[in-house]
Description:
The complex is a heterodimer.
Chain A: E1 7-12, H1 16-25, E2 34-39, H2 47-55, E3 60-65, H3 76-93, E4 101-105, H4 111-128, H5 139-153, H6 156-170, H7 181-207, H8 212-219, H9 223-235, E5 239-245, E6 248-253
Parallel strand pairs in A: 1-2, 1-3, 3-4
Antiparallel strand pairs in A: 5-6
Helix pairs in contact in A: 1-4, 2-5, 3-6, 3-7, 5-7, 6-7, 7-9, 8-9
Chain B: E1 9-13, H1 17-29, E2 32-36, E3 51-52, E4 57-58, H2 59-72, E5 76-79, E6 82-90, E7 93-100, E8 123-125, E9 134-136, E10 138-139, E11 151-152, H3 158-162, H4 167-171, E12 184-190, E13 192-195, E14 199-201, E15 218-220, H5 221-228, E16 249-256, H6 271-285, E17 290-295, H7 305-314, E18 319-322, E19 328-330, E20 337-342, E21 348-353, E22 355-360, E23 362-364, H8 368-375, E24 400-402, H9 412-430, E25 456-461, H10 473-481, E26 486-492, H11 498-510, E27 515-520, H12 523-536, E28 544-548, H13 550-554, H14 561-580, E29 588-591, E30 595-599, H15 603-614, E31 618-622, H16 644-657, E32 661-664, E33 667-675, E34 678-685, E35 689-694, E36 696-699, E37 703-705, E38 719-721, H17 722-730, E39 741-748, H18 762-776, E40 781-786, H19 796-804, E41 808-811, E42 819-823, E43 826-833, E44 838-842, E45 846-851, E46 853-855, H20 858-865, E47 892-894, H21 904-924, E48 926-929, E49 934-936, H22 946-950, E50 956-960, E51 966-970, H23 980-984, E52 990-992, H24 997-1006
Parallel strand pairs in B: 1-2, 1-13, 2-5, 13-24, 15-22, 16-17, 16-22, 17-18, 25-26, 25-27, 27-28, 30-31, 30-36, 31-32, 36-47, 38-45, 39-40, 39-45, 40-41
Antiparallel strand pairs in B: 3-4, 6-7, 7-12, 8-9, 10-11, 14-23, 19-20, 20-21, 29-48, 33-34, 34-35, 37-46, 42-43, 43-44, 49-52, 50-51
Helix pairs in contact in B: 1-2, 1-9, 1-21, 5-6, 6-7, 9-15, 9-21, 10-14, 11-12, 14-24, 15-16, 15-21, 17-18, 18-19
Amino acid sequence: xxxxxKILGILCxxxxxxxxxxxxxxxxxxxxxxxxxxxxxxxxxDPEFVVRAFLKGCDGIWVGGCHPADCHYxxxxxxxxxxxxxxxxxxxxxxINTNRLILEWVSAAEGARFAEVINNFTNQIRELGPLASxxxxxxxGLKRKLEAALSAVTMxxxxxxxxxxxxxxxxxxxxxxxxxxxxxxxxxDGFIQEEITAQEILLLLRQEALSVKEIAHKLELPPPYIxxxxxxxxxxxxxxxxxxxxxxxxxxxxxx
Amino acid sequence: xxNSKKIGAVMVVGGGIAGIQASLDLAEQGYLVYLIEYSxxxxxxxxxxxxxxxxxxxxxxxLSPKLVExxxxxxxxxxxxxxxxxxxxxxxxxxxxxxKRPRYVDEELCNACGNCVDYCPVNIxxxxxxxxxxxxxxxxxxxxxxxxxxxxxxxHCLYILKNECRQCEQACKLKAINLNxxxxxxxxxxxxxxxxxxxxxxxxGRKTEYGYGEYANVITSIEFERIQNASGPFQGHIxxxxxxKHPKKLAFIQCVGSRDLSSNSYCxxxxxxxxxxxxxxxxxxxxxxxxxxxxxxxxTQGKGFESFFERGKKEFGIHFVRSRISSVCQDPQTKxxxxxxAAEDGSHHSDRFDLVVLSVGLEPTKxxxxxxxxxxxxxxxxxxxxxxxxxxxxxxxxxxxxxxxFQSPKDIPESVMQASGSAALASGVLSDVRGTLVEEKEHVxxxxxxxxxxxxxxxxCHCGVNxxxxxxxxxxxxxxxxxxxxVFAQQSMYACSRDxxxxxxxxxKEHSLNRVVVAACTPRTHEPLFQETIREAGLxxxxxxxxxxxxxxxxVHAKAPEAATEKSKDLVRMAVAKARLLxxxxxxxxxxxxxxxxxxxxxxGMTAALALANQGFECVLLEKEKELGGNLKxxxxxxxxxxPQNLLAEIKDKVLNHSLITVCAxxxxxxxxxxxxxxxxxxxxxxxxxxxxxxxxIIATGAMELQPDEYLYGKHEKVFxxxxxxxxxxxxxxxxxxxxxxxxIQCVGSRTPERPYCSKIxxxxxxxxxxxxxxxxxxxxxxxxxxxxxxxxxxxxFYREARNxxxxxxxxxxxxKPLITEESGELQAVVFxxxxxxxxLIRPSLLALSAAVVPGENETISQLLKVPLNAExxxxxxxxKLRPVDFATDGIFVCGLAHSPxxxxxxxSQALSAAARAAIPLxxxxxxxxxxVSCVDKEKCFGCGICEYLCPYxxxxxxxxxxxxxxxxTITASCKGCGVCAARCPRMAITMGxxxxxxxxxxxxxxxxxx
Lengths: 256, 1011
């Protein structure tokens, strides 16, 4: 059977979703691969929703909102831009093709454009193949990484940087330093690497107790880096020293 | 009036944007509204527009929510396809006779499923698309039409004409088609009437020299709107009518049917800006397109229009040529069009264009005469409604008001402002009978479902053949029945029909359902209906979810029935997953302090305060100076030859003597706390500090005339600003000799890089003073140096009058600004005359500078109230088109010069408008919050303040709670439910009603696949 992409749309009530209604009223035919979740504003779309949808096997996700400056809630769509900026960087980190997540604006009057966005995106995903085809080192590894990413985006650190994007670029931090998009991106990338790795370590250690060397081997990362992560996690009580085997300490996730 | 009983209902005649706005404002205030529309659907001209200037909002996108709001409002009765025949009685108690023409489809029964259309064999011209497309004789005017019901055009229906056909009758399963429908006469009692019949475009065929109707590629601007529209006749592709080719070179001819003694002498006010708008849209589609606009004066006088014009020139490279085109010729071979014209420098040109767009002017609607007769009101010499400059929304008959383009040609925000303004006046007449005719619906008590396991009922709609003709509805129903927690699943022909609704209520009770999913059409139109239904069955409205298997599925996958069935199942599964997690939510009700605060005691502030008081609300009017009056104190005559001092004396008297108005003069705002319905403000004056609590705020802080620092202003005693000149003339402090050689310079401080906006009033002010001087000394030489003369609307006649009186108008640009020097005490001006191409020397006896209007203390107020200013320092309204006096923050309104430069009549309209909008929460006495608002989990919140920073409405605040740390809390009264705070909260401590994290996750999980 040929590959039928599984596509999720998360669309704002006022523009993109309304554009879909107009495509319907105008009977503009498009490919049937998409399922849509309606939200009030594209700014409502939490990075969690998008990462979760990938984890649940969606091959492509479209976040849709009002055209810039047309947002029904004044500036919600700007937050959608910030969210997509984060998640695309996460996808890149996970070696998932970033074109699997698109942010496209469709107004309530653009029924034809709505159909066009879906057709183009569906075809684009068809070319990219199933999400699993991005898993160079096996689907289970990718799922674990996505699961780690899902935990990471529900935690303070990444959410905080994502949320501060607007303020840092417009008004600057509390010292008045205004950041460029590039600087924010670099900051995000650093946090993404750190947070996802930490969550991955915890996921592994929830299954079995492992040594630093073993973790490094499984995650294909240098042992000194893992050592520092383990140290930091232990300091926060996220993991415990379970036992010492052959003179190397084994760690496990702290389930308390 | 005492002897006849007042009636708490208002009739609004004309369902364009003005009529809709007036209706909504009045209905929200508690009046019963009859909205009478001549055509089969409300929406008016705005519905036809592609985009709106200067923000380029999609017109239908911002209009259609208003259409739906009007349709659904329980206090608005829309009577479409109808006109009024007579209005008898007096203010407070009118009897209006209505003629409702048959539409041959029962509006009550028709659910706009559209199944009948294919059976109609007759094609007719599509008037909504300006005749550029065809529709069936049985059609709906446009997809978003309200009433959302089809109709039959009796002039083309085979049955009505020849007694043949009747195929549609059989096609309609709801039996909504009634080919024997007759016209109906209705008599209604209302307390006031508002006329908003709108406009018609000038019939371009009357200007035969432009070849409209004869040359295929000469079209009108309204046709061009439809051509550019994505849902228009060519799906938004710009084409030539002669060959369907995409044009490369396009010309706009301005003032077709405006500023022209052979058609209409007035200026239509909007055509310059709409031509720029249409050009920009065309350029956005095709940047290669070569566009030239031929104009006399560019009149972009509205707020933000001047920079829009600049963008058109600089960013989009639209060419502007100042030349009145006398005729259009067609190349018979290519059907190209040739324009011969003289440019400003006198050079002659002959240019070829692929397409010529005629910027047609605005005329009163064709029914205006009839309407005026029926309502017994007077029209002016142009056929528009006659009004007085100081009472712009009052017709010649008491109790009958006017708004929108029927009063004078105007754009959308001006129309919307007048509409709300007329609502304020109508409400002023009827305030003591407010609420007497609207009934609060009695609801059955809500059943408490807490602790119950979800018992979900799924109703799958056939929508005639719209769904069932594609997807296998039985299969979907069976599938739904097998889902966890679904205890009941049923199919219905039309889930939205009245009998189905009743069945749903029965089933909910019978099966003790506590969640309902309807798989049918879009929640955007039908959710409120079904929510009402489940509410009648005793379920909380929020226990409802919708699967859109029509608009999002069968309609768009008509050729893939299996895929459509599968998709429908997925959509139902996702909806059920969300439904499981739905919880009942309460509509929060916040009481309102029924008092208004008006900041600024100029004309706008006094008008607003008086209108609020006349509507029955207490009001505090704050003025920083000792005396009320503001700029009006310095105005002594107007272009229309009225006396502003009389207006000032009259309104001041009314304000000072109104029992509901407290005037605080010589006072300032020190601090404002709170939110809509509950503001606490500290006011300081020299004597004392006082605190008042109030529900709304109207900002009317005005503006000032710029004190120029050029042209020897302040250095030479004969250099005046226009305001000072007017004052000097009126007080008689000038001599005849001063009027010998008068030089006036326009745009002093306006339309400059530093202040790029147009100050709007100065052209009129210059002409006003010039005419006055001519009257005092007919031998006076008056020279007016200008960039564009912007006497928009009916004021064009005064421009003509001034020219006829011998006032000399000379163009200048920034390269050739007049050079003013002083030569042994006498003024001397070196000015460039573009016609002769040389400098000339004038020795003015008097120099008048048309100085810019500059914002006053807006900055302070903006910071105190946390409402935004635009780049130019004027207040920035919530929406340039449809919310011109509101702010994004609820409960705060703006009017007058604080908003933007404007004339006396515009200030009055806007002030009334602000009073109408502000009166809504005061009249309701409560603010209701949709249960989609945010809610903060105090345990999780650590007070970081991100939500407060990001909230566009200032509706979430981080504050220290007694004895605890900083915590965020939602101001439910003004939260709009966008959910940005929830999506950004680092602790995920914020949840959104009906769109919780868990619910959305459940929808996503329900779509999950094995991979």
